[in-house]
Design a protein that fits this description.
Isopropylmalate Dehydrogenase; ten-stranded mixed beta sheet; 12 strands
């Protein structure tokens, strides 16, 4: 019997890259039945809701989704769809592996990081108000429950994959209470893992400097919400950009896989979006579902396409002159 996966095409380049990922996953032999669901600006236009209840219910029911980037219309009173989705499904951990990709030349050839981002609170709680005209405030929320939960997740995830060290980036020297609580909780959770993995902490500005100077010093990075968002893009820049970094949003009962990049409206519908990050997110999804053979087949295929480096296969963001379609077809061909 085929496994059911929810597919959220999303906005901007979302439909292009999710179609590519679906074609590649189907060609890998993974037996998947796709349930296509609306979310984002497109859903608002056609269903009257930016995040329809049936989309949430379907992901809750099936437990796994592959999602394209979703944009939230600015200034129309809509809360971020991504934030809502993570909160409603309790997807408290974002996992983003950032690795040097064969055939993509960058300043470093030895990047192998896993970024783990707290997904539910911090400044992204969305609690903002205007105190008086011209003065606004945004609240940064930290709870010991969420801080301990993400810390435990990070240590468990790192240990299960044989990683050597978890590093927290923070600003507890200034944000003594919120980042202070985050650190306190991580240290507490670490007590149970101290015999299996190393742990250290860096003030985030210093951490950024060290990360761009020598990423090989780092292994697993654990960050609160805003820092995780920013550091993910910074790290993507170390390995060739947003087109090559996948991600997963994980909870206890469901997981939503999506690339780190946004909806890239500047290149939407031009047929040149790099589908690789979404395909890689699909590979993470297949591994999560236990379809490791198919995951490996796809990974070998994109590795060989990238190593061959034929410009007509690759999208412009990674130095090619091809299209989303040519890249997708090259990967499918490499699997045969
Ligand atoms: P968000 O706020 O939704 O995360 P963002 O502001 O980080 O979005 P993106 O939509 O991720 O912005 O795009 C940032 C830049 O990277 C844009 O110039 C975009 O064209 C480029 N980009 C993003 N994803 C891809 C991709 N898959 N292929 C090629 N270029 C991409």
């Amino acid at each position: 019997m085929s496994d059911i996966v929810c597919l959220l095409p999303g906005d901007g380049i979302g439909p292009e890259v999710t179609t590519a990922a679906r074609e590649v996953i189907d060609a890998s032999g993974a037996d998947i039945e796709w349930v296509v669901l609306p979310a984002g600006a497109t859903a608002l236009e056609f269903c009257g809701s930016i995040l329809p209840a049936r989309t949430i219910a379907a992901i809750e029911g099936h437990g796994v989704a592959l999602k394209g980037p979703i944009s939230t219309p600015v200034g129309k009173g809509h809360a971020s769809v991504n934030v809502q989705l993570r909160k409603k499904l309790n997807l408290f951990a974002a996992v983003r592996p950032v690795r040097t990709v064969d055939g993509i030349k960058t300043r470093f050839d030895n990047v192998d990081l896993i970024i783990i981002r707290e997904n539910t609170e911090g400044l992204y709680s969305g609690i903002e108000n205007e105190i008086v005209e011209g003065v606004v405030q945004s609240l940064k929320i930290a709870t010991s429950k969420a801080c301990r939960r993400i810390a435990r997740f990070a240590f468990e995830y790192a240990v299960a994959r044989g990683r050597k060290k978890v590093t927290v980036f923070h600003k507890a020297n200034i944000l003594k209470m919120s980042d202070g609580l985050f650190l306190k909780c991580v240290r507490k959770e670490y007590e149970q893992f101290a015999d299996r993995i190393a742990y250290d902490e860096l003030i985030i500005d210093n951490g950024c400097m060290q990360l761009v100077r020598d990423p090989s010093k780092f292994d697993v990075l654990l960050l609160e919400n805003l820092y995780g968002d920013i550091i993910s893009d910074l790290a993507a820049g170390l390995v060739g950009g947003l087109g090559v970094v996948p991600g997963a949003n994980m909870g206890r009962t469901c997981a939503v896989f999506e690339a780190v990049h946004g909806s890239a409206p500047d290149i939407a519908r031009k047929g040149i979006a790099n589908p690789l990050a979404c395909i890689m997110s699909g590979v993470m999804m297949l591994n999560y579902m236990g379809k490791t053979e198919q995951a490996k087949r796809i990974r070998n295929a994109y590795d060989s396409v990238l190593s061959a480096g034929r410009p007509e296969d690759l999208t412009p963001d990674i130095g090619g002159n091809g299209t989303t379609q040519s890249f997708t077809q090259a990967i499918i061909k490499a699997m045969k």
